[in-house]
Amino acid sequence: MQLAHAPLENRFVRLEPMGEAHREDFRAACNEDEVTWQTLYPFSYAGEHFDPSWARVQRDREAGTFLPFAVVVDGRCRGISGYLTPEATNATVEIGGTWYHPDLRGGAVNPAAKRLLLGHAFDAGARRVQFKVDAINARSRAAVTKLGAVQEGILRQDRLCWTGRIRDTVYFSILRDEWPEVRERLEARLAAFERELADA
Fold first, then answer.
1. Is 63 exposed, middle or buried (0-12, 13-18, 19+ CB in 10 A)?
2. What's this model's pTM, rounded to 2 decimal places?
3. Considering only CA atoms, which of 20, 122, 2 is closest in space to residue 68?
4. Residue 67, Cα to own-chain centre: how many angstroms?
5. Which fold has domain 8-199?
């Protein structure tokens, strides 16, 4: 598995390797969603938490443990997602660290971004792509299930969140031989969004 950290794009979203050019747009977007950071994430990018969290992302990028992408919509960074802990020998990778501005939720951006990230990973030789979701995050669990990912189990008391809450983590995965069916499902969803735009 050889994952390139390069731009990915389709009709609905552009994913760019996250860097300094995205910083202030991303900061502004994060500051519009303080409730989510307080309740559903193990870390926060809002307010005074932004700069240390940004620095951590850059350190992880340099170490190769996180390949972050700026989620760019209408020319502005409105979210983040990426590849975590890629293991070339085992041909496995996690898609995670994902957050979208509230205005983008429930529309085409998430399936469009997942189509890009999953396609790129499997094209690069991945055998398994996994997702880890906070057990209380019903929206994210539903979104990953809708992709066609298989829930494997729940790791109890898996992670300490920045607020002090201890979270249970739900594991999901998609395997290489499952990807064609998942891809077909994603492309059908995106085609429906295309028709909505055409009819608008």
1. exposed
2. 0.94
3. 20
4. 11
5. Aminopeptidase (3.40.630)
